[in-house]
Amino acid sequence: MKETIATIGIISVITTGGVFITDSKVNPYVDRGNYYETSISNNSIKVDKNTNEVQLTKWEETESISVKPIGNYLPSTREVLSDIRKAESLDGKSTFIIEPSGNSINLDTILKERPEKNGNEYQQFHYNIIGCEDYDFMYQPPLSEEEIAEGDIRPEDIIGSYAVYHKLLKNNQFETGKAFHIKRPIISDNDKNWIWGELGFESTTCTLTVYVPHEFLDNAVYPVRVDPTLGYTSMGGSNSTVLLNTVATTYATSTEDGTVTSISLGIDGNAVGTVNAKGVLYDNTINNNALITNGESPSTLLPASAGGSFTTISYSTGPNINTGIGYSVGFVGDATVRYYYDSPGGTQGWSDPTNSYASPQTTGATNFQTRKISQYINYSVSGGVVNSDSVGSNEVVDVLIFD
């Protein structure tokens, strides 16, 4: 009887010119036999029907990682008119949630009651990361007082998060080499009380752990949602600025002989729409930070806000790069430039605040930092074949730069 009433209701909406919603319009999944498939930012997401393992692909499915909660769950189901898949635990005490959201996917655990305690100060929720061996999981710590004073910004959901970069692939179609970003989880209860959870990653076991204070769980109104989110992005999660005439670079080593065709920069005009910038390429192996021949790109007007997109500048006559040579890849602006980065640790490059936008110069700069700036180069291999690697700039230009 209920199905009949629902059907009549839908028909009446259609006949009165109201809004007609069908399940096929809401359901983002396609049944592929052994798995369900959807997509985020043109990347395929596959959900195994039996294990609930969620595979996130990248770069036209040439690479991927998979995430699976540790525990025993029934196969996931989806309610009509919902884009959420739910897998109930065998003991009935929790639900694993798979929810596409913008350019991210939420892989949440809903706790129906207070779980049996584990850990000392924190309850631990574990996830297997299958395929983690091919990636570097870079923890993003809170900014230091010095970094904050210098104007660095690290959003709350990026503090304590992990930027995930492929260990080998970068440049051209692989852009910065960044595949995913695992954001800081939010823990919330039924009365909308919430706190930030903490993340931990163990590379030897490929285990991601969400830590939740026992105190919160002891006093929460259930159900409680543990909400880790995996986002697709090639851009760094933090940002800072450099002043006009400052060259900011990151180190990169060429694995082939070739000619640079363009440089892609994760920068903007810091909310100003009149800022111009150039790409620059320095030789730091044979000649100490010498600007290489044709290493200065044409200038381009930067957007006031990057909006998650790179600014790509094409060379009219591209500089040549050679196998085994170390380069510094970067940019310089005619006013304050905001750049986006992640923090992998270690020395990544240099900056020179005394250089020149009008005529970039060879530099002896010694201002170093551990910022991996989001920028990369595109180049063609000698002989005219376009390469999908790129001298190393795409490594999001691991810029330790400025400051």
CATH C-level label of the largest domain: Mainly Beta
Number of domains: 2
Give the assembly state of these chains.
Answer: single chain
Helix content: under 10%
CATH arch. level architecture of the largest domain: Distorted Sandwich
The major sheet is characterized as: 9 strands, antiparallel
Number of strand segments: 32
- The CATH topology of the largest domain is Beta-galactosidase, Chain A, domain 5
Structure annotation, total helices: 4
Overall form: elongated
Characterize the structure shown.
The protein folds into 2 domains: 34-231, Beta-galactosidase, Chain A, domain 5 (Distorted Sandwich); 238-398, Sandwich (Jelly Rolls). The termini are far apart. With 403 residues, it is mainly beta. Strands 6, 7, 8, 9, 11, 12, 13, 14 and 17 form a 9-stranded antiparallel sheet that branches. It has helices at 2-15, 23-26, 145-149, 214-219, and strands at 30-31, 35-40, 43-48, 54-58, 63-69, 77-78, 85-88, 94-101, 104-111, 122-130, 135-140, 161-166, 178-188, 194-196, 198-202, 207-213, 224-231, 238-242, 247-253, 258-265, 267-268, 276-283, 290-291, 300-301, 311-314, 320-321, 326-333, 337-342, 351-352, 372-373, 375-381, 385-386. The radius of gyration is 24 Å and the shape is elongated. Strand 2 and strand 3 (43-48) form a beta hairpin.
SSE layout and pairing:
Elements: H1 2-15, H2 23-26, E1 30-31, E2 35-40, E3 43-48, E4 54-58, E5 63-69, E6 77-78, E7 85-88, E8 94-101, E9 104-111, E10 122-130, E11 135-140, H3 145-149, E12 161-166, E13 178-188, E14 194-196, E15 198-202, E16 207-213, H4 214-219, E17 224-231, E18 238-242, E19 247-253, E20 258-265, E21 267-268, E22 276-283, E23 290-291, E24 300-301, E25 311-314, E26 320-321, E27 326-333, E28 337-342, E29 351-352, E30 372-373, E31 375-381, E32 385-386
Antiparallel strand pairs: 1-2, 2-3, 3-4, 4-5, 5-10, 6-7, 7-8, 8-9, 9-17, 10-16, 11-12, 12-13, 13-14, 13-17, 15-16, 18-28, 19-27, 19-29, 20-25, 20-26, 20-31, 21-28, 22-23, 22-24, 22-27, 28-30, 31-32
